[in-house]
Amino acid sequence: xxxxxxxxxxxxxxxxxxxxxxxxxxxxxxxxxxxxxxxxxxxxxxxxxxxxxxxxxxxxxxxxxxxxxxxxxxxxxxxxxxxxxxxxxxxxxxxxxxxxxxxxxxxxxxxxxxxxxxxxxxxxxxxxxxxxxxxxxxxxxxxxxxxxxxxxxxxxxxxxxxxxxxxxxxxxxxxxxxxxxxxxxxxxxxxxxxxxxxxxxxxxxxxxxxxxxxxxxxxxxxxxxxxxxxxxxxxxxxxxxxxxxxxxxxxxxxxxxxxxxxxxxxxxxxxxxxxxxxxxxxxxxxxxxxxxxxxxxxxxxxxxxxxxxxxxxxxxxxx
Length: 319
Fold this sequence. Notes:
xylosyltransferase activity; alpha/beta; transmembrane helix; signal-anchor; nine-stranded mixed β-sheet; 11 helices; 3 domains
């Protein structure tokens, strides 16, 4: 039973979903991009499909779909009809829809607005060791590079090779972007990326961490839909569930650096941040109890729960 039928003040739910409104004609690939778009994102979608050239699962219909051949070949479109008087889609639920209807065994959770990304072949031709990480339930991070937020920055020229990117970052022309941190200062760790010759483990995880990441379509928690737009919440439960995050050293994404972390208003952001603090502790308790009941609390799988619960409880001065 829907909560909106039980509680009159519940938020409206977009329950009219039409999967595969359009289905791509290209072959199914090992990894699909999943992204969410609005009616103004057609150019960004076409750019993404051209660069990636693999099947993508989307959450909004584009009127121009049939007039752009690259979309017909590489993009699946799923339509979500919003409830009356709703002005903005709730991205958490849309992310789940895109993942649910993906036709690939692995999904790459990606924002719609980007300047460049590595092609599908550069990701899908990864070593067996990398694919094995996904099959073991771990996640891969595609590092995102962006321009610094300052005036007179030319954002239509950028390097697309690893060596060139290192030169630009070292010169201060670009930086490794993790929202919530200054450039090059987030958990993805530019210092480690620069030295890496293979995927490396994220060792400084934080519950605000929200990178572009790849997982198996199955066997991972879904994004929490109580939030409008909180990508770190999707990653947080994946982390608590036992997944390690490994950063790809030879694949990356480029954004302008002007994109906000989310599209919330200031008041909405304050409410969501408060909810997320409570959610952090709630999920710690949930997974600790689940692992205890399953008899795995004393195994390596529960190490992230122990690590994060101690940090969360200490921060809230509960222990």
